[in-house]
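DNA-binding response regulator
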Amino acid sequence: MRILLVEDEAALAAQVGASLREAGYAVDHAADGIDGWHLGSEEPYDAVILDLGLPRLDGLTVLRRWRAAAVAVPVLILTARDSWTEKVEGIDAGADDYLAKPFRMEELLARIRALIRRAHGMPSPELACGPVRLNARAGTVSVDGAPVALTAHEFKVLDYLMHHPGAVISKSTLTEHIYAQDFDRDSNTIEVFVGRLRRKLGVDVIETVRGQGYRLRPPPEPA
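Tokens:
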């Protein structure tokens, strides 16, 4: 999953970015509203963390422009602790959630996980496809209850596919959502990750759709 962090406070941005990456997210950072608005308009993100007090272009204006342009990405706004008016304005402008500064990183991560789940109609924190279970909070995967050890990139690929069950996902889409903007991307490595996942999971849940990409489907029930 790929996150856009729009925050001008350098120390906070570094802390949040590090925590997000440690949690397995690909993170792009913008330090002002103009850059944030441009990235959010042009790049495919799974969620955005948006500070409202930004230089060059304030966060509310950024958010309103996105929503006016039908950019439907889930947005978590960061507000001042006692500024209830910012919270109301943010929600009215199209924000999906808010968090007051200062905040605990665990709460931020929990809210981001919940935003992404809700965006895909998934209320449970544990994702399932047949015997495969993925827990984004714990960063664990199991098959029939037995833990499966995955690399960071293998986990990211499976996580994205499990958030889009039944949908055909192209290699380029997977590449865009598991790597940050400044990463040296190579869509051919997606084939390698999928091949490793199939071997490690030991069940046929990732289907290749020739010429289009991959689709996650539960294995057929035994006769």
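The two ends are 36 Å apart (CA to CA).
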